[in-house]
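Technical note accompanying the year-one report. For the benefit of new consortium partners, we illustrate the data format agreed upon in the data management plan: each record pairs a sequence with a structure-token string. No post-processing was applied to the example shown here.
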Amino acid sequence: MGENVGAAARAMKNFGLSELVLIAPKFEWPNDRAQMLASGAADILENTRVCSNATEALAPFNLVLATTARDRDILKEIHTPEAAALRLRTAAQAGARTAILFGGERAGLDNDEMSLCDAVITIPTAEFSSLNLGQAVLLLGYEWLKSADRTPAIRTRQTIAVPATRTELTGLFEHLERELDVAQFFFPPAKRETMVRNIRAMIMRSGLSDQEARTIRGMIVALVRNKYRGQKKE
């Protein structure tokens, strides 16, 4: 189906795969439905090579892995998607031309087609083992990209924070201390000066940005404004 080819092309574009080869397609090519599903991947469809059989299609490649969900009579190594991507990536970095062979959704690959491949990729599934073409290409394309990706497993989005000025910090100190005085926080009064110094030192250690200093002052205003909320008026 043209739609599946279009979805496969889009998945390829997402994950850095660029060469699409169709083997004896049973639909008209070029295909309008494929174009509709290949959002952003029109260039892949335009450069698609169409071959009459697998032998012709795979002729330029040095390493070919075949996807299948079923056991075969042919004895070949079976790779997980992750292991397959690593093998393909290593071969490509050494200068080899590599390919993944996908079968049709109904019948998959026949034994003659499998015999042209170096190894097999089987995608683990929970119950139903069949995936449509777009899903399979997406999953293996992701593993291909991941095999060379160095993105940290966990990261925090970096923002450019401007440190608070002394004026902003002084305004925060005075605002906070004024409201703490009203709340009679500084007790006994003889220890007020020491407590103020400790609070200021604590705030200084946090290295506030200008936005954070303004946010804290806003919090103080909100707390003071609503300190009687929920209490019954006398």
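Partners are asked to follow this layout when depositing records. Residues 166-225 form one domain.
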